[in-house]
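Q: Here's a chain of 474 amino acids. Please give me its 3D structure as tokens.
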Amino acid sequence: MKYVSTRGDRTERGFSEILLEGLAPDGGLYMPVSYPKVDTATLERWRSLSYAGLAFEILSLYIDDIPPADLRRLVDQAYTEAVFGTPEIVPIRPLEPGVWIEALSNGPTLAFKDLAMQLLGALFEYELGRRGQTLNILGATSGDTGSAAEYAMRGKRGVNVFMLSPQGRMSPFQQAQMYSLPDANIHNLAVEGVFDDCQDIVKAVSADLEFKRRWRIGTVNSINWARLLAQVVYYYAGWFQVTAAAARRGEPLPRVSFAVPAGNCGNICAGPVARMMGLPIEQLVLATNENDVLDEFFRTGTYRVRGRAETHETSSPSMDISKASNFERFVFDLLGRDGARTGELFGPALVRDGGFTLRPDEKARLPAYGFVSGRSTHADRLATIRDTWQRFGSMIDTHTADGLKVAREHLRPGVPMLVLETALPAKFASTIVEALGREPVRPPGLEGIESLPRRCTVVPVDVERVKRYIETHA
């Protein structure tokens, strides 16, 4: 399997090369030259596999430059009951008729991003060791990517992490998770702006090819294909669990819908990949908060990036994003993999006009991908959290509440709906208290995390300042 850029560079590269590189040299995102197809017989063969076994099978379709025995060892190392708390890794639980919650948040930082980051950490360490090289990871986080990356990379040989976060815009728990890590290879930079400023700095540094190569800059954001690939696995795992009863009865394999809280679009962009591979997915329900750039796009065909003043600070802060960089991958597929057109939309048009509108023929292709969308507000979150607790005794976090609220708007008779639980309530205690009048339970070992000493450097929205920091701390 080889990979090419979304912006027209047709130079084919192997997985191990794009793993360490992040963005393509032309500023695009890497995509596989094609999607492997998974037939019904293969689905049935995979049904009995463990999560690690399933991950190995799916990753093997995309990774052919790591020996299979090594890849299997890395996958087994990443996905263990000891790390994720359950043998299923991503167990599902019924909530109400036709609706299930898929728990993606049982990892060390209580967020879905652990599922990709634990694998990414193992892959980075393996590939750097194989090459005898080092890597300086530069990332941006709106709340969960940062802690998941840092916990996965802490103490890893040959890896430094420089993580940018918007100053004061994460929950106290999220800040404490990141800033309290004492490891020498972890560096936190609080940027005096919003998440989009952090993300723009990462892209600007990556676009400086001389600096990127001299300091060996890599990424862990969802712009790294390896992270999105790892996320494809839990769509399959959720589908296998929710269709297990039908399989036992020998019934035709049912289609399943997935509802996904969406900010930077990495989580839900794994959905159409799974669907195009052959997983029977009915709908991909995209849920935003008040920062509704993606909901607007799927309703109107217009992608309009908001400025800093229009990016709302909300109670689901990991979705406080107005420039969904990973969204480019979906548009590349939507446009028939036209790199020149994709490059124009996400390059000059975005800079010149602050967004773009699909042509009528392009917009007409949207329904084929199964996307529907909706928006949730703070009042909606409170109501959903309260209702879910009072009726079902199930406590959900603010982002999952956004997903559930929009999922209920798109239920179809006879089609199971899996809502992806993206974080645990403990990460957003103040909103849980507001909704329920009680503190969420914290997993053992995380009590009092906010009182731990912190290591963090505040920086302005300045690409050169961040470069200088990397130069002096790499």
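Q: Can you summarize the key feature?
A: The longest helix spans residues 114-131.
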